[in-house]
Amino acid sequence: MAIDLNGWNKTITRIAKHLHTGKLKPSDLDQDLIQRTFTELNKAAAEGYGANYTSYSTENSKTVQQLQQNIYQFSAAKTFQQLQKYNSLLVDENGKERSFSSFKKAVLAVHPKYNTNYLQAEYQTAKASAQMARKWQGFQRNKARFPYLKYKTVGDDHVRDDHQRLQNFTAHIDDRIWDKIYPPNGWRCRCYIVQTNEASNEPSPDTSFIDPEFSLNVGKTGVIFSPEHPYFVFPKKDEDSYKKAFETFKLIAPYGKAKFT
């Protein structure tokens, strides 16, 4: 995905100015930055999930709401960590307070790491996770006829060795192993699952390689970005600010016909 940083640069420049003057502190978060992050990742989830992502039917409503809530929580947590990083640049390596010009330059040098490099990986993960969440619904509908799931890789030279060892592993759809290895199983993971009626007596695979951030089943939980992600680690004193930011999501999220004020 290509990310246009023009709009982001204006937001980051404004944030830099407010941090420098003390008008903004990291725990205040920044609604514009949260919203920009959420918009990009929610777009990725919509691409992966398909047309029904905007349909709040009984089948979709719970899963879509869970995905969107998780994306917004992640966007708020990422905003906090980003502001913390920028705030640390207020003084230079010698402990001297930076002028605004120097501070702005330092912030604009760091921000593409968050809003280009990291965001691209997060975008791909949101897209792949939403796609697998949607597939899980189909697997559940058809499990009477096809009660087994088979793990698949894309089969090219970029497949990780650990993921390749899971190739064609098959287990019953209700086996708890899918709580651990249901894709994606890492950043930029392209693995997927197919449904089958062919059983297998293979032993459970070694799953120790899977990072705790990805050791979950997005189809069951609606969680794309796990609480294990380091963005979700912040001081106890700032938890209220984070929770407040999440509550604002209810003002913009269409929960069926429900309206919040």
Largest sheet, spatial ordering of strands = 2-1-3
Major pleated sheet: 3 strands, antiparallel
SS field, number of helical segments: 9
Shape estimate: elongated
Query: What class, by secondary structure content?
Result: mainly alpha
Q: Could you report the average pLDDT, rounded to the nearest whole number?
A: 90
Instruction: Report, as a whole number of angstroms, the end-to-end distance.
Output: 35 Å
Please estimate the helix content. 40-55%
Give the helices and strands as they follow along the chain. Answer: HHHHEHEHEHHH
Integer-rounded radius of gyration: 21 Å
Unreliable spans are 255-261
Strand content: under 5%
Instruction: Let me know the number of strands.
Output: 3
Keywords:
3-stranded antiparallel β-sheet; 51% helix; disordered C terminus
Secondary structure: elements and pairs:
Layout: H1 6-21, H2 31-49, H3 58-87, H4 100-141, E1 148-152, H5 161-164, E2 170-172, H6 178-181, E3 192-196, H7 218-221, H8 239-247, H9 249-252
Antiparallel strand pairs: 1-2, 1-3
Helix pairs in contact: 1-4, 2-3, 2-4, 3-4
Describe the structure.
The chain has 261 residues and is mainly alpha-helical. It has 9 helices and 3 strands; from the N terminus they run ααααβαβαβααα. A 3-stranded antiparallel sheet has the order 2-1-3, covered by helices on one side. It is elongated and about 65 Å long.
